Amino acid sequence: MDIRESIEVRWFLPADDARAARLVSWFSRAFSEAPRHDRYRRLRRADLGIKKRGGRPKSLEVKFRVCAFGSIHLSPTVLGELERWTKLTLSSTDADDSGWTTLTKERRVRVFGLVGGRAVEVMDGEHPGAGCAVELTRVAVAEGEGAAAPAAWSLGLEAFGPPEILLEALYAVGRAVFVEVPDLGLTSVESKGYPAWLAERSTER
């Protein structure tokens, strides 16, 4: 069993949003992961997520929101909802598949370490002791037994390391990276975690 804390900010954009092309270009040199199939429990709650993580090894992740800090500006045109989460990871168990939503994720990740209060990008799969991962994910929802349908793009920043410096790491990396894409235009309305986004989709149906 593994328990970790993180501070995160995330946005969801429609699959055909014009900003996605800029983000894909921005992540052109980022590490690309193989497509992954994660299954989320349909809870209709913004503060709790239960996920069966795909890939190897498979795991069951329970993630709950400890605190919602509110809106923050990471650049003049980037406003997001800052949240603190605690994640509990267990070995996956085989259970009834009913009541779950399957998401196919294609993630591109840039990792930044926090060095002397500054954000420094690390390459070649390195993972520093403290910093922030910046990810761009193409998200598709599997409808029934058919192929996954394009649903959204998600841009997320997730700070990692000792709990006392998570906030510093996210601010430092966020402010540094958004200089690279000026006038991107991300709003707090578009900013939410996966549980809130899935809850909204369930309500719309």
Classify the helix fraction into a percent range: 10-25%
Please trace the helix and strand order, writing H or E for each element.
EHEEEEEEEEEHH
Shape: globular
What is the number of beta strands?
Answer: 10
Strand content: over 45%
Low-confidence stretches: none
Alpha-carbon distance between the two ends: 35 Å
Tally of separate helices = 3
Strand order across the largest sheet: 1-6-5-4-3-7-9-10
Rg from alpha-carbon coordinates: 16 Å
Largest pleated sheet: 8 strands, antiparallel, barrel
Q: Averaging pLDDT over every residue, what do you get?
A: 89
Backbone structural class: alpha+beta
Structure in words:
This protein is an alpha+beta fold and 205 residues long. The chain is 15% helix and 51% strand. It is built from three helices and ten strands; from the N terminus they run βαβββββββββαα. An eight-stranded antiparallel barrel has the order 1-6-5-4-3-7-9-10. β4 and β5 form a beta hairpin. The longest helix is centred in the C-terminal third of the chain and has 12 residues. It is globular and about 50 Å long.
Helix and strand arrangement:
Layout: E1 2-14, H1 19-26, E2 31-32, E3 36-41, E4 48-53, E5 59-75, E6 78-91, E7 100-115, E8 118-122, E9 131-142, E10 148-160, H2 166-177, H3 194-204
Antiparallel strand pairs: 1-6, 1-10, 2-7, 3-4, 3-7, 4-5, 5-6, 7-8, 7-9, 9-10
Would you kindly provide a brief summary of this structure?
With 205 residues, the protein is an alpha+beta fold. It has helices spanning 19-26, 166-177, 194-204; strands at residues 2-14, 31-32, 36-41, 48-53, 59-75, 78-91, 100-115, 118-122, 131-142, 148-160.
